[in-house]
Amino acid sequence: MAVTQRVISAPPEKVFGILADGWTYADWVVGTTHIRDVDPDFPGVGARIHHKVGPWPVSLHDETVVLRSEPPRRLVLRPKLRPFGEMTATFTLTPDGAGRTRVTLREDTSRGPLLWVRTKINDLLLHGRNRETLRRLADIAEKRGERHESPGLARQA
Question: What residue range is the signal peptide (predicted)?
Fold first, then answer.
C-alpha cells in the first residue's frame, strides 16, 4: 500500500469541494487524460466519473466509482484500470492549523492481475505518482480554488 501525505493551505471544506467536483479529476489525478462524463450525484456512494486513462493512441475508457463519501473528511474511490485491475484510493482530510488541511492518500491494488505483481517497487511508483497528484490538488486549492468551487458539498446536504 502506498501512503502519501501533504499539508495544503486551504480548509478541509475547500479541498473536499475540489475532490467532490468530478469534472476537475483530470486536473489533479496523474494519468487521467479526459473526463467523458460525471454522474450527477457525484460524490455520492455508487456515483461514477467516466474518463480516459493514458496517452493517445493507447488511452482506455474507464471509470472511477465512489465507495464512501463523508464530506468534508473522507472520500474513498475505486479507480478501474481495466484490463489490469482496480485500485482503492482513500483520501482523508484532517484540519492542520488555521485554514490548513493534512491530506492522506492511501492507495492499493484491490482486484485484477495487478494483484499478482504487487511489490514494494509498485508501492514506490504509486507513492511518486500520488505525491504529484497531491501537489496538483494543492495547486488548485491554494492558487486557483476560486475557479473550482464545487456544488458537490451542496449535493451532499
Answer: none
β-sheet with 32-38: strand ranges across: 2-8, 101-111, 85-95, 74-81, 60-70, 48-53, 32-38
| Domains of the chain listed by start with CATH number | 2-30+68-156 (3.30.530.20)
Write phi, then psi, for 21 (nearest 5 degrees). Answer: -100, 95
Helix axes 120-143, 12-19, angle to 10 degrees: 110
Pairing of strands 74-81, 48-53: unpaired
* Burial class of residue 100 in the structure, from the number of CB atoms within 10 Å of its CB (0-12 exposed, 13-18 middle, 19+ buried): middle
Single-letter amino acid code for the residue at 98: A
Q: Which tens digits make up the pLDDT trace of 39-98? A: 999 999 999 999 998 777 878 889 999 999 999 999 999 998 766 678 899 999 999 999
Total-model pTM: 0.84
Calculate the alpha carbon distances from 138 to 4, 72, 75, 111, 132 in Å: 13, 16, 16, 29, 10
d(CA 6, CA 76): 17
